[in-house]
Specification:
alpha+beta, 17 helices, 613 residues
Length: 613
């Protein structure tokens, strides 16, 4: 080894020891006869002192060193002189007095500061020089945290008798929601493999094979539009169990979730232990989302009985049409952020409410009515619709919403889908605006009793709410024949802070039940057998009841790291246009390669290039 110690481990007890360190120049300070170098590696930073009077050769080398040069130094550990300690560094009470130094490699001037995490760097620049970006302390912390998460999962499941089994990356194209990435076969011209969107079928076949408890850290691929928490290739914990019911799978995974937080995300606080079970209908009714952020309230409250009796025509018409009328109470929204004891001016309040109205219009709402409670008791309610409510109705609204002085009531009256979307949009925005979501709190919960299907009006068919292998709740199986829209799936989602962390279900293990699903989702018998014949055949050979779950490792690491998106916890992510601007991928294939695969490219229309982000 070119080092005896790493740059984060030396302490006062090492004083007097001769050590050899190797790493990068994090910072260099030249004081003439003395040069100080902060030497950095993955484990930390050690201050190195080079004294020209005692080590002229090392001083000459140190004079040439610049940021990000790779150095090897040998010297003696000493306790820092009193008054020069740095309590912010674990190694801040010692330094190493160098007597030998070698430049192992020089470095060009980096395109951005690597030793400063507080500097805003253009993300495309970071992606272009990702190997340098990954040197930054915050990125190294994120990547190491991700490693610790995965290692903990492996150890935990091993202790619970799970077997880690790899499944193929090259598999059959069987659309499961998103587009497949296709891989042409050279040996069988005209045929294609698909990269797996998940190992769903294969893990069920492993249950048929009798392994009973399987997992893997699986690479998955989906050709879909990207956003902050999505990538075309991603990593999931894939897990399947035999001879279990829904409660069994949830119990094991809840144990894993709680243990991960307590042992790995030690800087986080769990809001719930044990985790609550929330029915899908309740989540949508209160939060407008099946993955609500439970760190704050901001629940949508039904006020249709009060609002319908007001003199406001919009609410009267909504009630007559059977539309919901709901309110979110925004705490303290009327108060000035700078002076909470003072109300916003009329102009600032008007501007704020206009911005909220514009926000909800992006999800289909036609407007946003509001009433503000004054800070001073006895003053009249503010807002253009306040005059349409009697004193008694106002009192009922305040009591039902538990509104306090300075709160603003935001009203929604529309189709239920629009009210849900508006509720979700407002909750997320208000939580950020009012600083309601503590980043160090994890609000985990289970969402259960999802509808088995959603109706696709355009294609006149039922679409699975999860996937086509999900078992209906046992008591709802007869509804597949009589009223599929009322059937509930046996699925369960683990949510945290507004994200879905994991999702799973009890699977169909009866061929007869599986064959009932195909026509409901628009698959003919012939197409179903072509795509899933291997599954149907396997179901004839003694399939145990089984179920499983898949965790998003990228999303889990993002939440544990308090990162703004999953690109911050992936070593080499794609941009939001699916590009790798470091390696310039995707790229054009050579003509000889295409010819060998029997592929001819059709001419494409000139497209306006999208900006990478």
């Amino acid at each position: 080894m070119l080092k005896t110690h790493n740059c984060g481990e030396l302490r006062e007890q090492h004083s007097g020891h001769t050590v050899t360190l190797a790493g990068w120049v994090n910072r260099r300070r030249d004081q003439g006869g003395l040069i100080f170098i902060d030497l950095r590696d993955r484990w930390g930073i050690t201050q190195v002192v080079i004294d020209e009077a005692t080590s002229p050769a090392a001083h000459a080398v140190a004079s040439q060193a610049r940021p990000e040069y790779v150095l090897q130094i040998t010297g003696q550990v000493r306790i820092r002189p009193e008054g020069t300690e740095n309590d912010e560094l674990p190694t801040g009470h010692i330094d190493v007095v160098a007597d030998q130094m070698e430049i192992l490699n020089a470095s060009k001037t980096p395109p951005f500061y690597i030793n400063r995490d507080d500097e805003a760097i253009d993300e495309s620049r970071r992606m272009q020089y990702r190997y340098l970006d990954l040197r930054r302390a915050v990125m190294q912390k994120n990547i190491v945290l991700r490693h610790r998460i995965v290692k903990y999962i492996r150890d935990y499941l091993d202790k619970h008798d799970f077997v880690e089994i790899e499944t193929p990356i090259l598999f059959k194209t069987t659309p499961e929601g998103a587009r497949d990435f296709l891989v042409p076969s050279r040996l069988q011209p005209g045929k294609f493999y698909a990269l797996p969107q998940s190992p769903q079928q294969l893990k069920q076949l492993l249950m048929v094979a009798g392994y009973e408890r399987y997992f893997q850290i699986a690479r998955c691929f989906r050709d879909e539009d990207l956003r902050g928490e999505r990538q075309p290739e991603f990593t999931q914990l894939d897990l399947e169990m035999s001879f279990v019911n829904r409660a069994d799978v949830m119990a094991l995974n809840e144990g894993l979730a709680l243990a991960l937080v307590k042992d790995v995300a030690t800087d986080k606080k769990l809001l719930f232990d044990p985790l609550p079970r929330i029915h899908y209908s309740e989540a949508m009714d209160k939060y407008g989302s099946d993955k609500p952020d439970l760190r704050y309230g901001l629940e949508a409250i039904d006020v249709a009985d009060i609002a319908s009796q007001s003199a406001f025509a919009v609410f009267q018409q909504a009630a007559a049409g059977g539309l919901p009328i709901k309110v979110i109470c925004a705490p303290g929204l009327l108060r000035s952020p700078d002076e909470p004891e003072t109300a916003l001016s009329g102009e600032r309040l008007k501007k704020l409410l206009k911005s909220l109205e514009d926000l909800v219009k992006t999800v289909g709402a036609r407007g946003l009515a509001w009433i503000a409670l004054p800070l001073v008791e006895g003053e009249d309610l503010k807002g253009p619709i306040a005059k349409h409510f009697s004193d008694e109705q106002r009192a009922e609204l305040i009591a039902r919403t538990n509104a306090k002085p300075g709160d603003v009531l935001l009203f929604m009256a529309d189709k239920i889908e629009v009210v849900w979307a508006t509720t979700d949009k407002l909750r997320r925005h208000l939580a950020e605006l009012l600083d309601l979501a503590d980043p160090n709190v994890l609000a985990m919960a289970w969402i259960i009793d999802f509808p088995m299907f959603y109706w696709d009006e355009e294609n006149k068919r039922w679409d699975p709410s999860q996937h086509l292998f999900t078992m209906p709740m046992p008591e709802d199986v007869p509804l597949l024949d009589s009223d599929p829209g009322k059937a509930r799936g046996s699925q369960y989602d683990l949510i945290c802070n507004g994200y879905e962390l994991a999702g799973g279900s009890i699977r169909i293990h009866d061929r007869a039940v599986q064959e009932k699903i195909f026509p409901l989702i628009g698959l003919s018998t012939d197409i179903a057998r072509e795509r899933f014949g291997h599954m149907l055949e396997a179901f004839e050979y003694g399939v145990p009841p089984h179920g499983g779950i898949a965790w998003g490792i990228d999303r889990l690491a993002m939440i544990f790291a308090s990162a703004p998106n999953i690109r911050e916890v992936i070593a080499f992510p794609k941009t939001q246009t699916g590009s790798d601007i470091m390696a310039h991928a995707p790229s054009e294939a050579e003509t000889a390669q295409l010819d060998e695969l029997g592929i001819m490219l059709a001419p494409r229309k000139q497209e306006t290039p999208q900006a990478d982000a």
